Known about the structure:
3 copies of one chain form a homotrimer.
Chain A: H1 10-23, E1 48-58, E2 61-65, E3 78-81, E4 85-92, E5 101-102, E6 126-132, E7 137-138, E8 144-145, E9 150-155, H2 165-170, E10 173-179, E11 191-196, E12 212-214, E13 218-226, E14 231-235, E15 240-241, E16 257-258, E17 260-263, E18 268-274, E19 282-288, H3 291-295, E20 299-305, H4 313-325
Amino acid sequence: xxxxxxxxxxxxxxxxxxxxxxxGSVTTHAQVPQADGPRPEVxxxxxxxxxxxxxxxxxxxxxxxxVPGKASVPGPTLTMNEGECLQVTLVNDSDKRxxxxxxxxAYTPSSDGTPTNAGCVAPGRAKTYVFEAPAPSTRPDGTVDxxxxxxxxxxxxxxxxxxxxxxxxxxxxxxxxxxxxGDPLPDRKPxxxxxxxxxxxxxxxxxTPLPQVxxxxxxEFVVIGHGELMHTFHLHAHRWVDNRTxxxxxxxxxxxxxxxxTVGPADSxxxxxxxxxxxxxxxxxxxxxxxxxxxxxxxxLFIVRTPGGELTxxxxxxxxxxxxxxxxxxx
Amino acid sequence: xxxxxxxxxxxxxxxxxxxxxxxGSVTTHAQVPQADGPRPEVxxxxxxxxxxxxxxxxxxxxxxxxVPGKASVPGPTLTMNEGECLQVTLVNDSDKRxxxxxxxxAYTPSSDGTPTNAGCVAPGRAKTYVFEAPAPSTRPDGTVDxxxxxxxxxxxxxxxxxxxxxxxxxxxxxxxxxxxxGDPLPDRKPxxxxxxxxxxxxxxxxxTPLPQVxxxxxxEFVVIGHGELMHTFHLHAHRWVDNRTxxxxxxxxxxxxxxxxTVGPADSxxxxxxxxxxxxxxxxxxxxxxxxxxxxxxxxLFIVRTPGGELTxxxxxxxxxxxxxxxxxxx
Amino acid sequence: xxxxxxxxxxxxxxxxxxxxxxxGSVTTHAQVPQADGPRPEVxxxxxxxxxxxxxxxxxxxxxxxxVPGKASVPGPTLTMNEGECLQVTLVNDSDKRxxxxxxxxAYTPSSDGTPTNAGCVAPGRAKTYVFEAPAPSTRPDGTVDxxxxxxxxxxxxxxxxxxxxxxxxxxxxxxxxxxxxGDPLPDRKPxxxxxxxxxxxxxxxxxTPLPQVxxxxxxEFVVIGHGELMHTFHLHAHRWVDNRTxxxxxxxxxxxxxxxxTVGPADSxxxxxxxxxxxxxxxxxxxxxxxxxxxxxxxxLFIVRTPGGELTxxxxxxxxxxxxxxxxxxx
Lengths: 331, 331, 331
């Protein structure tokens, strides 16, 4: 007896979706259903609502965007806090059926985003997915519900095959961050790097991201795997902890400190670092450490400016060399 | 000076092995040897003993079973508690030499189950392997012996090659769970999923397991890798902790919460979840998230019924769609 | 304004490098520069300095060594303590440009060892790399700098491609261990096993390492991945904890206990075990658990003698069988 939303007319879809995109929220007054399952298909108030528009981007790519005409690969980074519920209205402006399947959060079958659970969206139609981010709690039997904080992601699960292989290949994926109360917040928006087949974000060097930040800023990376291949993610000159946040809990932490990590399809992790900590400004490579993958252009630069926001001469020279390496010259 | 058991006659083997299978235990009065090594090849009393029968199953499969004629892929799930010793008498009813090599537990060379340590069993013969599950303890130097609790496994190490490549390919593998005092017990027997080449348990959809459980039950998964390929295991709508038990120790646990994990050959892990927690009943996919693997049928359904044990209409419809997807129709 | 060292003449290079090799240390009186970055390119006193000589080894291999004519694959194991700074003068006695890129430690762009940061060394030239191993500390904002303790590694990043694919393939890699105050020390020098394509240390059985140790000794393994392929490392009859040190912190530790681990290119981990604990002397296999890799010879033996240093009859027989398996006979 789950409440199902129907969007019979395209005009209504776009207006309400745009409204949500502008206001960042829509008020819902849904009946809490007497469900077989424990959760309705709409969030209780208060709620966060937003829209995603899936559309062709040219060059064989299909992406998600927050407003029509602005799709990107990866799609927008979605952020939740544990305890929150999020409604996402997906508008399919492409010419193929597709969906949104989220990792890490809770959802009823209707929001699973799979053909098996009838969660695909036909071209020209829309569908609202509801995601809940449970907070940790102690169960009546004394065991612990771990919550859902993490560096997660969402992706198509319908296009091409029942697993969305066609959609993922074309770029239908994005990051979903669930934060726990007390988690430090980064100083800039997260750097999302998706290792999809032999690419970052469906691009190879010199077209991969070259994020620029200032020395001393708290920077957050989210790394996601997709596709057919295993990868290892390596960042030069920085290190982090191999746990939920990438941050050590204490100076006596026993978790492994790493600067390289295996990333299989749909694996995801994130971490925060202080840009240039111990090392200063520079053009620091990130790359897949599978040698053949990096040699094919699965690499980029994490550019750390001075604390005042300037590029050092040394950094400018490194950027120049990097670009020359990818202009057909001898590496 | 390790005591070696000899089984000269087939009849004696089967009688004693069946006896162990029926009683679940055999009494041993072995001399504790004055060994080069610290452990005898028989367990001290009290002991657990059981038999495994390896046999051809048809369809190119070979499996282990607790009684003749009942081999399965995977083989029986073996369970120990830290501090215990287990004797397994392996009877080879197949036509090729094979063995049992266990992960995670302690054994002398004679129970290593490899050609190198002369641990194979010829067709028509039997051999007793002895496995000890050490409990954690503090060593005299102050460091900690970690114990052996974990979601482990056992497999052939003799058939086809010195690494048992032929036996593993055909299905000679199973789960071995070592529990620590205080570990929560599941409400049902564990769901064992072995990612062996592009299959679960040497099967592809729609023939992969479709376990049915009730919402609210504590369910235990054991995931094991085998063969030649890397995989990632993903379960829909549930999440667990990436540690020894899959359970958070406290609500402030810092371990990573996951719903997807890389699984290489002979990697193994397990976790317990509350079926349908936060999400209710449903047909929840589990699959390898390497896209090409799932598209080739490396997937199945974890079916959560209502707390009263009923399948919802929605769940029945999902199961129907899943089966249709694998009947040659358009996915 | 980082101080750059120039080595214009080969003779000076070799003399000073050899001096460092012999004394284990060179005194530096560098000016602390007013740098864009926070760290000079020389260590402050007191400092550790050493030299590495890269050279052709025959058989298509190129290795690093502590003195000329003594290169090895892997190169020398370098060890630091958190809080220390290390200067390595790399002398290129090969006929191709190459470098040294370190994982886990801090360095300025000049010591990155990449073409992008102009860190390669031409044939016949030398370059000093400076590596700092930060200790954990609490930052002014209350978060924790995790430090740099770990089982890391170094490798070429210049030969063949901008990622050093040619150098790594030929053997230009080694272990770099950073210890934390209080970490237990092993009783012997670490056993370093690099899973580079389908080899350990560029060798296959029966030419892979066969380390011999005595039962009861504290033995340290360092396992490093390289090249193009994913592997899983398995050691028979022993287990360790999947954390920074491989050691459980307490008898109630919740980290996963393992005896098999996925290793991707540039992943690295280490652990300490008590040789033969619970199992006694024996010839214990270590191998990649990707079946096809082990069958191609990606395996070796960890040989545990009696506490008094003797090989048991059983162990000798196992070594004999192992060697026979690799002499073209039936496995």
